[in-house]
Amino acid sequence: MEYPALSPPPVAIREIPCFKLLETDKTLAFLDINPLSQGHALVIPKHHGEKLTDVPDDHLSEILPIAKKLVVATGAQEYNILQNNGRGAHQEVGHVHFHMIPKPNETEGLGISWPQQKTDMEKLKKLFEEIKSKV
């Protein structure tokens, strides 16, 4: 068992045991120690940032390719890639991390609800224009 090598390492993450699956200069992937299903893994940038917007783009470039490798390595046919930002969005650890969670059956893996809101097309168009002008 190893510990993640982060620069600079937040104390909370530095103290968590780590079963390292893959490591590069910018990224670390390891098994989740409280998994939702077999093969549940985390992929994290080594650059410390609490939220996604705190991490420079060049430190995020390997995240999805590594998550894809983990999907293939675990043989997951159905899975979730999850990333939360802030306590209200269910982020428990103050360091950006992406979950790769196999969903082998109805009871294992991530369970979610999707409370859709009724759409007002005029408001949606206004929101679209506002966001698009800032991208």
From TrEMBL:
<feature type="domain" description="HIT">
    <location>
        <begin position="7"/>
        <end position="110"/>
    </location>
</feature>
<dbReference type="InterPro" id="IPR019808">
    <property type="entry name" value="Histidine_triad_CS"/>
</dbReference>
<dbReference type="InterPro" id="IPR001310">
    <property type="entry name" value="Histidine_triad_HIT"/>
</dbReference>
<protein>
    <recommendedName>
        <fullName>HIT domain-containing protein</fullName>
    </recommendedName>
</protein>
<feature type="short sequence motif" description="Histidine triad motif">
    <location>
        <begin position="95"/>
        <end position="99"/>
    </location>
</feature>
<dbReference type="InterPro" id="IPR036265">
    <property type="entry name" value="HIT-like_sf"/>
</dbReference>
<dbReference type="GO" id="GO:0003824">
    <property type="term" value="F:catalytic activity"/>
</dbReference>
<dbReference type="InterPro" id="IPR011146">
    <property type="entry name" value="HIT-like"/>
</dbReference>
<feature type="active site" description="Tele-AMP-histidine intermediate">
    <location>
        <position position="97"/>
    </location>
</feature>
<dbReference type="GO" id="GO:0009117">
    <property type="term" value="P:nucleotide metabolic process"/>
</dbReference>
<dbReference type="Pfam" id="PF01230">
    <property type="entry name" value="HIT"/>
</dbReference>
